[in-house]
Specification:
Helix content: 25-40%
Distance between the termini: 12 Å
Structural class: alpha+beta
CATH architecture of the largest domain: 2-Layer Sandwich
Number of helices: 5
CATH superfamily of the largest domain: Impact, N-terminal domain
CATH topology of the largest domain: Ribosomal Protein S5, domain 2
Number of domains: 2
Largest sheet: 5 strands, antiparallel
Shape: elongated
CATH class of the largest domain: Alpha Beta
Length: 217
């Protein structure tokens, strides 16, 4: 599965435009149902707002389900421009709601487009990104004499050490991007002259990892 960027966690940012408050909330959502549930939760939180404009993108690249609504704003002035900004962010599996509290001054068609676009841009500026990527987790039991070399080998193949148990021998649990694992296996075989074999204990087709956890896949 190709890796792509998703929101790392729910994030919120507020801007003010001509006395109206625009509160943009964005979150990772991995299905249409999750996106709808998130949108409803934000609408419930801001039930007294003038508008709660929802947008979402589920999937990434050629396989995407996208949705937007103007939630009572003039047609085409809120949902579509907000969605366009989200689509341009290179994120997948993301849902957002732009909440508006009307401040007494009408913004006009162009002003609304700019305000909703800027609200989404503002939250994207502070949003932490993560990667959605296929991973496998393995355990390797080894003599103490090989521990440091195996640890360095894991890091060289972009592995993340999840656990280390020191007993009669050392048992290391490490997680790798799936695309890197075969090369690590071969390198471990060469290092140990075939005596060490990693045992896969878990796989995850949709692991969410901070950007840079598995660089250069």
């Amino acid at each position: 599965m190709p890796h792509y960027l998703v929101p790392a966690k729910e994030t919120r940012r507020e801007i003010q435009v001509s006395n109206s408050r625009f509160i943009a909330t964005i979150a990772p959502t991995f299905s249409v149902d999750e996106a709808k549930a998130f949108i409803q939760r934000v609408k419930n939180e801001f039930s007294d707002a003038t508008h709660n404009v929802p947008v979402f993108i589920i999937g990434h690249g050629a396989s995407v389900t996208a949705h937007s609504s103007d939630d009572g704003e003039p047609s085409g002035t809120a949902g579509r421009p907000a969605l366009a900004v989200l689509q341009g962010s290179e994120l997948g599996d993301a849902a957002a709601v732009v909440t508006r509290y009307f401040g007494g001054s009408k913004l006009g068609t162009g002003g609304l487009v700019r305000a909703y676009s800027e609200a989404i841009r503002s939250v994207l500026e502070v949003l932490q990104r993560a990667e959605k990527i296929s991973t496998c987790t393995c355990q390797i039991a080894m003599p103490y004499a090989l521990f440091e070399r195996v640890r360095l080998l894991s890091e060289a193949h972009r592995g993340i050490i999840r656990n280390e148990i020191f007993a009669a021998e050392v048992t290391v649990t490490a997680e790798f991007a799936t695309v890197n694992f075969a090369d690590f296996q071969q390198a471990l075989k060469e290092l140990s002259h075939g005596s060490l074999k990693p045992k896969i204990i878990a796989t995850n087709e949709a692991a969410i990892m901070p950007v840079g956890s598995f660089p250069d896949q």
